[in-house]
Batch of 3 targets.
Target 1
Amino acid sequence: MTVQFTDRPDPARNDAGIAKASTWDVGTPERQRQAVDAIRKAWESREWPHPGLLSYSVYAGEDGRTLLHYSQWSGEQAYQDFVRESRDARNADIDAAVPGIERIALHTYELYRSGLRTEGDTREPGCVVIVDVEFAGPDPARQRDWVDAVFEALGEDPDTPAGGIAAHFHVSTDGTRVLNYAEWESAGHHIAALATSGEGIGSPSPLWERVQKYPGMTGGGVNRYTPALSMEAGAGA
């Protein structure tokens, strides 16, 4: 299988058993660009590594130093096969081109719920906002209840932020985290939405207060990224 470059992944695809998300700290905007170029070269110079890898995407952090990696897999075994057979050679090429990359924690997720774009919406995301939520200890029911609370608050909110396209809520397989992969038209739309609401996305309400002050939440963050590179398996032999 060959490498095919695409506009973006589909976080809601129904054949993805898991998603992996991690961050690289490369230090500067110039090294961000160099690392993306090195990743592209390391991948396009080889065959697609495993049929169980469904997509692999890289995003440049607004901070000018980080890269977000988001990949979709048929299951954990496919990822372990990739680690055993293919990952080191690609990383060696990337590290040779951009020495000193700091690879930060890798987490495994399953998609739980998506708020999808309306039919006929052809907008392309110019910004991906990653919302991380951490909880005190593993509790899969709590993860899902928090996501359900977000959807309840969204459903009762009269003011839908301009520029929002879709949101994909993932729950970590260890029961401790939620990741919202939110697609926006632009970073400016997200900034404007935050400025309007005052604290997070959403109008002030008891439902949103429950989301923001949910028992057991211990941390998290909100980070904006620009899509830089997205790949999937091509049809070639």
Target 2
Amino acid sequence: MRVVHIKNPRQREACLARLCAEAYGQEAGLRPLATFAGTLGVLVKQEAARVLALVDDQSRPVALALLVLDEVGSSMTVMLLAELDQDQEPAGVARPAERLVAELALKAPLRVDARDAEQEARFRDAGITRWLDGKAGMRIGLGPKHPATSLEDLPRALTFDEAAVIQSFKRDRKQFDDYKARFIRGLETFPATL
């Protein structure tokens, strides 16, 4: 097992497309495409986003994560996280998403947001032990290397306006078609190994 930072632009696009598809599912409408487009068009251009994979001993990706820098560049937030099907090997990797988070938390100042008790429990199992109460019932988990000690000194993660991306799709059909083609091509060319 090892963590791979996907720097090759084609592989990064393919992995991001797969991550968006896995994280949001089949019934998500434009949200996976908007996240794909916003991440590439805003966060990747600003060098504020990283796509990482946990790969097995044969270099096959088993989990993917999108990490985004905070406003001051002192930490990274897990924005998307997904496990990939492991039907090619009977044994597989147990709980690859948690394993990826655990590996990342050991190496980087990591933040995770949990929407419910089940998510929080999964992140706790991954070694995220410091928790803060966020807005609207959100629980914010901090890895051991994260510098924040309270909500007040927790910088905001960089982001983009998803609604604005969807609106731009409606105004600019060429842009929509371009991102849609890139998204589909990414899904079709998802690398078997990294």
Target 3
Amino acid sequence: MTPVTPRYAHGALRPDLARIASWIEPGSRVLDLGCGDGALLAHLRDHRQVKGAGVELDDTCVIACVRRGVEVIQQNLEDGLALFDDKQFDTVVLSQTLQSMHRTEHILREMARVARHGVVSFPNFGYWPHGWSILRGRMPVTGQMPYQWYNTPNIHLCTLRDFEQLADDVNVNILERATFNEGKEVRLFPSWRSTLAVYRFASP
């Protein structure tokens, strides 16, 4: 089971989630996959009048969503998104979950099916200290990927360029990208210097 990543830091929405929220049109329909404690959906509801729903498997997170008044469906994302119709949503979000999916290509295709736009974030395996760790004969352990090789939920790690190639393969058009390191946005050499990448794409 993937540990819960707090979506609020010191009472504020995490910087990557704040960027995602800024990409969401007011009054639109949003599906948040692996929605955690529902903080993003609650923020979008309260500040952008979004009609949102979440999908989450973890019992504790589902209870947190309910307490926030967030609509949530308890389901394993590996089972797909068959519950949802084509283009039922304006935007679908998959935040820091892509790397733990077994069927990575499938979930991207399903996101493109159920919404006009998608947002994906994931740890950047191209971050330069990761390469240094491997040269020393050890798997990387960092703040964005704090697990040992034997207990990590991350099974499909990738770089920025890897994801961009996958997006091209599944025929989605990348519209925007933001990269972060310790909550601060990275604009110079993001492929090497960022620990987290966030992409917004348009469905075919």
